[in-house]
Amino acid sequence: MAASITDICNSALNQIGASNILNLTEDSKAARICNQRYPFLRDSVFRAHPWKSLTRRASLSPDSTAPEFEFDNAFTLPTDPFCLRVLYLRFHDIPYRLEGRKILCNEDTIDLVYLARITDTSEYDSLLIETLVAAIAADVAYPLVGSNTLAQQMRIMYEDKLKEARFVSATEGTPASITSVSDSGAIEADTFIRSRF
């Protein structure tokens, strides 16, 4: 059974000893805080790791308006689903720059691999859900329970979940253009030649 947003928030509330909520729009302090913080925390967790369940691909054509200088073309990042983080371009030796919601480069078309803002929780894998739970617990612990110590413990749990996700990602599938992610969240290429990326 897929976890809903309310289920995810309740799991976080359980971690800090707070009462469950029925939904994010109920009139309770916990629901109001979760409702306010969830979208920001979700996007932050999404950007912290190249989650395979959130990875999408797109072939992009250039915009009609070129950059003022340095690059020949600008490509608007995908909005359906919304691009939260550029992982890489198909050909790693393509020089490019990310500025705002645009990729600037000299190619006529580009193939992009990116992390998407997927809001359907049924698409999340179990490690992503557990990491979201830990991030929410760390964020709401002080406003709901008033404990900095508990908030710090939840933060450590969040960091541990991210490390676990990085290990699992590094050991799943055949290495293609990305083989692992460093503890800092940086993508590590699979060959020395691609290490320029």
Structure report:
By secondary structure, the chain is an alpha+beta fold. It folds into two domains: 5-51 and 125-188; 55-117, no CATH class. The chain is 38% helix and 20% strand. The protein has helices at residues 5-15, 29-47, 126-145, 148-171; strands spanning 55-60, 73-76, 83-89, 96-99, 102-105, 110-116, 178-181, 187-189. The strands form three sheets. The chain has a three-stranded antiparallel sheet, covered by helices on one side. The chain has a three-stranded antiparallel sheet with strand order 2-5-4, with no helix packed on it. The protein has a two-stranded antiparallel sheet with strand order 7-8. Helix 1 (5-15) crosses helix 3, helix 2 crosses helix 3 (126-145) and helix 3 runs antiparallel to helix 4 (148-171). The model is unreliable at 177-197 (pLDDT under 50).
Attribute tags:
alpha+beta; 4 helices; 20% strand; 197 residues; three-stranded antiparallel beta sheet; 8 strands
How many domain regions? 2
Share in helix: 25-40%
What Rg, in angstroms, do the CA atoms define?
A: 19 Å
Q: Number of helical runs?
A: 4
Q: Element order, helices and strands?
A: HHEEEEEEHHEE
Query: For the residues shown, what is the average pLDDT?
Result: 89
Q: How do the strands of the widest beta sheet line up side by side?
A: 1-6-3
Sheet with most strands: 3 strands, antiparallel
Strand content range? 15-25%
Q: Based on DSSP secondary structure assignment, what is the total number of beta strands?
A: 8
Going by helix content, strand content and strand pairing, the class is alpha+beta
What general outline do the C-alpha atoms trace? elongated
Unreliable segments (pLDDT under 50, ≥5 consecutive)?
A: 177-197
Euclidean distance between termini CA atoms: 39 Å
